[in-house]
Amino acid sequence: MRDPYDVLGVSKTADEAEIKRAYRRLAKKLHPDANASDPKAQDKFAELNTAHEILEDKEKRGQYDRGEIDAEGKPRAPDFSGFSGGGPRRGPGGFSGFDGDTIFESFSFGPEGVRRGGPRGGGGFEDVGDLFGFGRQRRSAGGGFAPTPGADMEITLPVSYEEATAGASKRVGLPNGKQIDIKIAPGTREGHRMRLKGQGEASPMGGPSGDAYVSVTYAPHAVFERDGDDLRHSLDVPLPDAVLGAKVRVPTLTGAVELAIPAWTSGGRTFRLRGKGLPTATGGHGDLLVKANIVLPKAQDEELEALMKKLREAAAQD
Predict the structure, then answer these.
(1) Partner of 22 for a Cys bridge, out of 8, 125, 151, 310, CB 3.0 to 4.6 A?
(2) What is the pTM of this model?
(3) Is 157:166 a contact under the CB 8 Å cutoff?
(4) Is the dihedral of CA 155, 159, 165, 170 positive or negative?
């Protein structure tokens, strides 16, 4: 996977606002719905979301910059150059083998990298990695070796606000080349994680495959701006409607609804449509906040100008 900075097209000194702007711009450009003819659209969009997930999080960004995780957010294996504990022993006659007990007491080697542990216990498996040159294996309590399962995979699945609200079926590409359809239930929230057992990476030693975990993320929307579980929308209101009042159509995630604009509505006034936002943790929905944006007629109107002059003169006298 490419460098997250290259994916977003930002420098390593970019601040949070610059990263957010770059992500929104590219998300609209690369969204699969806007690139239906591109078979790689889903992969490109997933790569963009992974890069954004790393760089928007200060902790993950720091880990990536220090080389602790890779471009997919996975831990990097540490450098063992110069490692001496539990290594080969040499006696007066030369090489005399590994001090295996010391090695297994100090470290265990797994798909997630190397971790320090205590002395060996009496049961279960112990991951000894590729220590002796014949693949990642696990030592069993009986003294034999069992192949290590394949690595788990994390997949980010972008869904639109409408799909999260009403439910949808989404096609996902898996590491093994399969294409599967995943059903998104109505009311699915961002961060929901699904396990696909045995759909991760294959084991290099013939063991069981790992699992694939699919996490739902919200894709940027062209009409609504997210504010927690609420949505915000700026609605253009013609000047006559703002002065005299009118009923206007407002888009929502479940279809347009009618909103009554009272007479003498000022620009910036916000109307709340309850239950028209995103799914909440309690099973309900947030609200839609509609801000009135007063717009003038497209054509120049001399009578309107004369009226405005009259009002301005009256205001000056007051």
Answers:
(1) 8
(2) 0.52
(3) no
(4) negative
For the chain, list the strands marked E by DSSP: 88-91, 94-98, 107-110, 113-116, 126-129, 137-139, 145-147, 153-159, 168-173, 179-184, 193-196, 212-218, 225-227, 230-238, 246-250, 257-261, 270-273, 288-295
Query: Distance from CA of residue 122 to its chain's centroid?
Result: 41
Domains defined along the chain, listed by start: 4-75+156-217 (1.10.287.110), 225-317 (2.60.260.20)
Q: Which range is most confident: 104-118, 119-133, 139-153, 166-180?
A: 166-180
Which DSSP state fits 172?
A: E
- The pLDDT assigned to 125 comes to 39
- pLDDT at residue 122 in the model: 41
- Cα–Cα distance, 289 to 165 (Å, whole number): 17
Length of the chain: 318
